# Entry
Amino acid sequence: MATAPIEPPQRLVSSLSGDPDGAVREWLAALPTLVQQRLDAWKLTLERVQAPGGRSSLLALVRQQDGTPAALKLTVPGRVSAHEAAALEAWDGWGAVRLLRSDDAGGALLLERLQGAVSLRALPEAKALLEAAGTVRRLWVPAKADHPFETLAGRTEEAAVALRTAGSLTRAAGPLVEQALELRRTLPAGSDEQFLLHGAFRQGKVLAGERAPWLAVGPSPVVGERAYDLAALVLDRFEDLMAGSGAAPAARRRVAKLADSLEVDRDRLRDWTLYRAVDTGVREVAAGARQRGELLLEFAAWL
# Structure
């Protein structure tokens, strides 16, 4: 059991300290106690809290009672990741980190230990995209009729107001915002696919493991069509693509290559990528990351 005080990573503290939600701030203040309670309840020995860590969760490297290494994750309450445990149970280690135990009430997850410092971003771009495509394919399992997950229609509907509001801060992006909002309205109704998706898939969410070479972590699960998940992969490391010559045609080739390799419709992948690029781009601008946001909007315009 841990004897030294448990300190949340500074990145997590900085990310959540200004959150207007009182419950989030209360959770952050209580986090050292919550971690210790879970260590005691599950008879875990704390090795260290991983830093810099994430912006909405704490990850602690621990040992189970028999000495087996594991990772204890506590996530901010009320976030999209509320159904992370259910998604990991559905995948049962196939393409994703294995869930060992969960505490639904407290939002705690005990996960198999992966190599947190080694993600697909360590690989050359072409190899990373190949491995990422193989990993995300494993996660696309048909959703059960009584699944607990959010749907694409619901997730994008909730995002529409924020997109329109944030888009007003970038007048030049007006036509792109309107196009993205129209795509948001039509795309979810245009497909009958009902797959369980990772929801936040990118190369940095795929870590090296012992049981399998690469395993996905940190899902924000949602049910819908595969092109939505794949769109995030199209946008991954887009800055590297834009820095090269012939960036615009290279972006379109990436869409075509990924769509064909995973048997996803090219046009729908292009449309979901445009939507996600605009949605992310205007949010980045609104948050003060103007340069990155405007690059994303330029990427969207190429499509």
